[in-house]
Amino acid sequence: MSERKISIHEDLESLSRAAAETFLDLSVRAVRAKGSFSAVLSGGATPRTLYGLLAAPPFKEKIPWRDTDLFWGDERCVPPDHPESNYRMAEEAFLSRVPIPPENVHRMRGELDPAEGAKRYEDEIRGFFKGKGGEGGGALPVFDLVILGLGEDGHTLSLFPSTAAPDTSPGTSHGKSERLVVGSRVEKPGGHRLTMTLPLVNNASNVLFLVSGAGKAGVLKEVLEAPPRPELYPAEGVNPVKGGLIWLVDKAAAGFLTKIKET
Ligand code: 6PG
Question: Does the beta carbon of 43 sit less than 6 angstroms from any atom of ligand 1?
Fold first, then answer.
């Protein structure tokens, strides 16, 4: 299991700036090392501030957008122009304002039947990494960065305590060894969701949680300080196999932490 780093910031703006600096640093290093940078975006409201920073100086000019490929960790099963769409939020917050080639933006097709949308996205991910000379056969792709949020109920991506763990047993994904993307039904706006699975996320080189606000103080304490109960708090299932795990939290969200010292 990887080292877990926790960084406590004054407020959302400050933690978002730290996230933007991490995004920039990882993108420059990845492109320098292998000519490409792959990042998975989170939905929800928290990352909006980060996305706005990426579309403004100094980040807009320094990020190697031409060699950056963006994916989503989850999506609501709605059309891309729907107010609930995670794609629409990112499009408005930064994608429409940075010089990233359209073919480098890999949207989850929430408008499709969930099973079809999941299959297409799984194929798109595998095709992308094969094209980059990455994993062959059933090996899990390795994203350079995955950005995640934390729901007040302990969910992350669209892995909710109420939804049965998606079937990731071997052979359940078109003959490949692990499911990368599944559909899940949730009692939330947009009903069905598409979500990346934990094996895929845990294979990333870097995972970054962004957690802000007093409303998250209770769940953050459970996830970071209480004995693990991933069936109740799916976010506890995020444990990168080899990659780094960083929690960027603000003081309000960290308000109940007693054991954790900033690392
Ligand atoms: C989504 C997200 C979800 C989000 C958490 C936190 O599609 O809603 O992917 O996992 O990260 O619900 O959301 P907030 O940032 O809005 O609190």
Answer: yes
Give alpha helix (H) positions in 63-203. 86-93, 114-131, 198-201
Contact between residue 253 and residue 211 where contact means Cβ atoms under 8 Å apart: yes
Shortest-distance atom of ligand 1 to CA 156:
10
Ligand 1 lined by 7 (C-beta under 6 Å): no
User: How many Å lie between the centroid of ligand 1 and the Cα of residue 175?
Assistant: 31
Q: Which atom of ligand 1 is nearest to the CA of 193?
A: 7
Q: How many C-beta atoms surround the C-beta of residue 186 within 10 A?
A: 18
Per-residue tokens: 55: 């579309």
| CB of 151 sitting under 6 A from ligand 1 | yes
Q: How far apart are CA 112 and CA 5, in angstroms?
A: 38
Q: Which of 9-13, 27-31, 141-145, 172-176 has the lowest mean pLDDT?
A: 172-176
Q: What is the pLDDT of residues 7-29, one digit of tens each?
A: 999 999 999 999 999 999 999 99
For residue 102, what is the DSSP state?
Answer: G
Contact 78, 188 (CB under 8 A): no
pLDDT at res. 134:
63
Q: Is 44 touching ligand 1 by the criterion CB < 6 Å?
A: yes
Question: Structure pTM?
Answer: 0.94
